[in-house]
Design a protein that fits this description.
Distance between the termini: 55 Å
Shape: rod-shaped
CATH superfamily of the largest domain: Periplasmic binding protein-like II
Number of strands: 11
Strand content: 15-25%
CATH architecture of the largest domain: 3-Layer(aba) Sandwich
Number of domains: 3
CATH class of the largest domain: Alpha Beta
Length: about 300
């Protein structure tokens, strides 16, 4: 059944005449007549009777009119729902975020976005950078905010900001008294690392391998807070993004020492599937992130966003 034919028939009965139906549909009266007759031939039933100057539905016509009313109500609802997405009257966005960014960036970014777009619901899924890349490829979420790792060709990445990776030790550790420490010295001490798919581990490990070094003892822990507790208790040292530990360093709970002839940074990107059309909600969130962007410092970025949201 042709939807245009059904709409022609439905509009004729709704308006009471072919001429008024043609006017509402912005077509000629003969065009409406042809649509109705074509529909009758397709169904094998007469749908309209003309009694005097009035049109009346046959039994088949009444049934079809009732279904047409339901169909075009749903069509109108569908159009309104899609238009609502475009107008940002509603929408849902699922974003993948690394643990550190979920804890230290998103709490200052999301409230400002929701103040501006209160009808868009944002859900966050946590994970490692490489795990989130896999999630984008599997279309579990439209966007992900990750620490940079090697991306497959199907990923589009948008540079967002950067953070320093700091060597973190207990203030009571012997190395805390040094002005600098070498990777060779660190290789003799137990290291507490984030998960195997972590971008921080990927970056630091390249520094050790470049010098032919391998830490004597390795503890892997996926939870940043747990890592900080282990370091505080003197169970080893760790490498963490600065935004995760600045407060503890300020309070003297943890300490950091520069690494001799080496510095580590982590670049933070927003990624999505190459060639995928982003939903209005995802496009709007991406534009909001780019509006609140600072390429060289995650810490400064979070401070600036916090100031904007508290003064607005």
């Amino acid at each position: 059944m042709n939807l245009n034919q059904l709409r022609g028939f439905y509009t004729v009965l709704k308006t009471g005449s072919f001429s008024r139906a043609a006017e509402e549909l912005c077509v000629t009266e003969p065009a409406v007549f042809i649509q109705v007759r074509s529909l009758e031939r397709h169904l094998g039933f007469t749908l309209l009777d003309k009694v005097g100057n009035e049109l009346h539905p046959t039994a088949a016509g009444r049934i079809l009119y009732e279904y047409g009313e339901k169909i075009f109500t749903l069509v109108d609802e569908a159009v309104n729902a899609v238009q609502g997405l475009q107008d940002l009257k509603h929408g849902h966005l699922r974003v993948g975020v690394t643990q550190a960014l979920a804890q230290y960036l998103m709490p200052v970014l999301i409230p400002g976005f929701q103040d501006r777009h209160p009808h868009i619901t944002v859900s966050m899924d946590g994970g490692s950078s490489r795990g989130l890349v896999e999630g984008i490829l599997q279309q579990r979420y439209e966007l992900a905010v990750v620490a940079r790792v090697p991306y497959p060709d199907k990923i589009t990445s948008i540079p967002y900001t950067r953070d320093n990776i700091l060597l973190i030790i207990s203030p009571h550790h012997a190395l805390a008294k040094k002005e600098q420490v070498s990777l060779a010295e660190l290789a003799k001490e137990p290291v507490i690392l984030t998960g195997a798919k972590s971008a921080v581990k990927f970056s630091v490990w390249k520094g050790f391998e470049k010098r032919g070094l391998h830490p004597a003892a390795i503890i892997e822990a996926g939870n940043i807070e747990f890592i900080k507790q282990l370091v505080e208790k003197g169970k080893g040292y760790a490498f963490l993004a600065s935004v995760c530990v600045l407060e503890e360093i300020r309070k003297g709970v943890l300490a950091t020492v520069p690494i001799e002839d080496e510095s580590f940074t982590v670049d933070i990107d927003v990624i999505h599937l190459r060639g995928r059309t982003l939903s209005p909600a995802a496009s709007t969130f991406l534009a909001f992130m780019q509006e609140h962007r600072k390429s060289d410092s995650l810490r400064i970025l979070t401070d600036e966003i916090t100031k904007k949201t508290t003064t607005s």
